Amino acid sequence: MSTRAHHTWRKCKNALMQTVTFCCALLVIAPLLLIFYTLLKSGIGSVNWDFFTKLPKPVGESGGGMANAIVGTFILLGLASMVGVPAGVCGGIYLSEYGSSRLNGWIRFGADVLNGVPSIIWGMVVYALVVLPMKGFSTLAGGIVLGLIMIPLIMRTTEEVLQLVPNGYREASLALGIAQWRTITQIVIRTALKGIVTGILLALARVAGETAPLLFTAFGNRFWTHHLSDPIAALPLQIFSYAISPYEDWRRQAWAGALVLLLLITTINVSVRVLTRDRFRK
Amino acid sequence: MAITAAPIRMRPEQRMAVRKYGDRAFKWLTLIMALSVFVLIALIGFELTKGSHLALRKFGWHFLVGRDWDPVSEQFGALPFIFGTIVSSILALLIAVPLSIATAVFLTELAPQWLRQPITIFIELLAAVPSVILGLWGIFVMVPWLRSHLFPWLKSSLGFLPIFQGPIYGVSMLAGGVIIAIMIVPIITSVSREILRSVPGLQREAAYALGATRWEVTRIAVLSYAKKGLFGAVILGLGRALGETMAVTMVIGNRPEIATSLFAPGYTLASVIANEFTEATTDVYLNALFEIGLVLLGVTIVVNAVAQLMLRTLGGPGVRPQA
Amino acid sequence: MTPDQEKQSRTMPPANPPRIAPPRPEQPAQPATAAPVHQDMPAICVDHLNVYFGSNHVLKNVSLNIRARAVTAIIGPSGCGKSTFLRALNRMHELIPEARMDGTIRLFGQEIYAPDVEPVIVRRRVGMVFQKSNPFPTMSIADNVTVGLRLNGIRKHGVLAERMEQSLRMAALWDEVKDRLRAPAISLSGGQQQRLCIARALAVQPEVLLMDEPASALDPLATSKIESLILELKKDYTIVIVTHNMQQAARVSEDTAFFYIGELVEFGPTAKIFTSPSQKRTEDYVTGRFG
């Protein structure tokens, strides 16, 4: 091949690869677009006032809503925060501010291992730890399992964010004779607060959609829950049980539930983006 | 104007308190929280082992190779699920890896600047879609389409292969593989992006200086440098695929059989736990499910550890836990 | 305070003799380990100081006395241990995990490395200003100045407000910021931020102020403001300043110490160091033959 032809061939190959990889990128985002489209199409009609305020109707009857599931999800997230946030943030503080690099390496490795544990396994463990002794499925168990899943997530994001705080602030604070623990809590954490909150929100968005661990901890409930020791409904659980049911009305509501859940999660993710964009602009 | 005022002294008790208790207490508090990681790992291992001891004792190693899963006669063998997990994960990798790495290459090297951010955002949004919603879409949109369009086409054009033979139900091993692929594409893509971005600019510059086209620069300077890291990203995707539960359960058919056809329904380790845990009537049944959990745990931990090691020893500052 | 009271307090030494161990209520007199404070006592006595980072012998056998109410300049080429020496004076080098030291350092007669002495207490008496100004970004100007007091337990509003104004005046920043005390500290210019850091350090009322190249990141106008500030402050405070700018050292200091690769080569009155040093290495450095 002459040099000219060879050069053209190279340019063609370049354009070809650009097109190919572009098509791959399109294929990758296609499912998301399809899902959004289907959710909107199938779900929007059912997202009405009833949906947010009514309890599920008995099998076969149409109507009703997912009020208890929506509230249940929020309750579980609240409980999960109580478990996951203190442990995760404090652990992240230790990794960032204290500790030898050797121990910290192992702790980080352990956190990453925990992050890779399938969520259904967490469900089994909390079943054995909480549900069996309590002799029943409970809100508490559901909150605990989601909280435990959050711990390694929050630990790593907190550590990362704290590491970003310039050392100059720690030095300035210590040079003023401020004790180290106060330096960390009042100066370092205050500076990194936005990032820590971001990490917590992202962890919440992640566990809000978890179904598997709740299958045998929170278990689900057709009615309102009044005690921590009672089972509780949650959006993902409700979506799942409706989706695999044979009833057309329930399936319709499953789409609505999925739309609401996805909106909730997307809202959290988008607001996190907005929060962090301000940080970069400064 | 210089002024010297009388210095204010701390009250002695105040000083003592700060000195003695504050620093040490705080350090211990945070240390205990950090060590909870090890406590949790131990707890998981312990509870799973305890919960499966009946099955362990009854079946021993035979559990891993037994083909019968029969709650009625209390015969439990995990081979169908191991088979299902492996096959669906490999399928998912076959589909997802080329797409993800190509997309990552597109985003870091070949795409025009204005296109990069929107596509990246879309991929991160896809990563945030919960498994159950993907499963819902899978049951009502993807599976019908597979059943009426893709599978018949595969059967008619590639039907001479044993994997594309047999009755078509829609819910199938292949559907499971596809849905897992959709779930793991975001994580492989974003980790691959990090890896590719961490390739030093000097490598690229050297290639450009030789007059290479963009694609050639990518192929020569970037991809070969990043090979190991990309492999780590793939292993990480595999780890994620192994643990995928809800979406798979909803589209794979949930039949504990080992079949050669990809159109046949399958069953994975995670799915059987999700489906049958609350229906486990006897202790042995429950223990068998716990043992399945143990197997799943072991496999995912090993795979994830390998992935982390690969990613840490070379490319990038470590992997951020992904949504 | 009236002008007369001001004048009086300026010439008097601090009302109470400085203490390091917490004062025991039944013993209003000084603890037995302290030497009686007198007018000519050096602020800091450094005796055979050696500092190691791991196996690296960073400071070798340094001994000198820092005069009270005067400015001592530390000069020397990069990497000679100036900053390490400075940080040894308020136990800041301990933040580095592999750091060790031996030797003694006395602050107004009291050893600061004695086993029962808390570094936190030392650092309240020996303040520090850093090369890169670092006002806390989430706090206002007022909060930055008072943070050292607030986080050490002083909460009374009146005291904080009074101390804040004093410190800002001492740092020659009051007039520029008095109308926007609630503004974020990072909205100030570089030179103003550095003076804010000085005010912040002064607010806890240290006896000694350490400055690590405080003006090196600033433009000449801001630098000269910092230097006039130093000349004012030295009437009441002992100041130790590390600088790579020899003219600056000559302008502001009474004594100068020249360090070279971890050793104290020469120490003496500034005029002598710069005009007729006794060591050849000193002479080579100040005349610009190396460095």
C-alpha-based Rg of chain C, rounded: 19 Å
Helix content of chain C: 25-40%
Strand count, sense and closure of the main sheet of chain B?
A: 2 strands, antiparallel
How far the N terminus sits from the C terminus of chain B, by CA atoms, comes to 58 Å
Q: State the end-to-end CA separation of chain C.
A: 48 Å
Helix amount of chain B, in percent? Answer: over 70%
Greatest chain-chain contact: A-B, 93 and 91 residues
Lateral arrangement of strands in the main beta sheet of chain C: 6-7-8-3-9-10
- Catalogue the unreliable spans of chain B: 1-18, 315-323
Number of helical segments with 4 or more residues of chain C = 11
Order of helices and strands of chain B: HHHEEHHHHHHHHH
What's the pLDDT, averaged over the residues of chain C? 83
Helix-and-strand structural type of chain B: mainly alpha
- Taken from the alpha-carbon principal axes, the silhouette of chain B is globular
Record the strand order, biggest sheet of chain B.
Answer: 1-2
Largest sheet, strands/sense/barrel of chain C: 6 strands, mixed
Task: Give the helix/strand layout.
The complex is a heterotrimer of chains A (282), B (323) and C (291).
Chain A: H1 3-43, H2 49-53, H3 67-97, H4 101-116, H5 119-134, H6 139-164, H7 167-175, H8 180-208, H9 235-243, H10 248-281
Chain B: H1 12-51, H2 53-59, H3 62-65, E1 69-70, E2 75-76, H4 79-110, H5 113-127, H6 131-158, H7 173-197, H8 201-209, H9 214-243, H10 246-251, H11 269-276, H12 283-313
Antiparallel strand pairs in B: 1-2
Chain C: H1 3-11, E1 44-53, E2 56-66, E3 71-75, H2 82-89, E4 99-107, E5 110-111, H3 119-125, E6 126-129, H4 141-150, H5 157-170, H6 174-177, H7 190-203, E7 208-212, H8 220-233, E8 238-242, H9 246-252, E9 255-260, E10 263-269, H10 270-275, H11 280-286
Parallel strand pairs in C: 3-8, 3-9, 6-7, 7-8
Antiparallel strand pairs in C: 1-2, 1-4, 4-5, 9-10
Helix pairs in contact in C: 4-5, 4-7, 5-7, 7-8
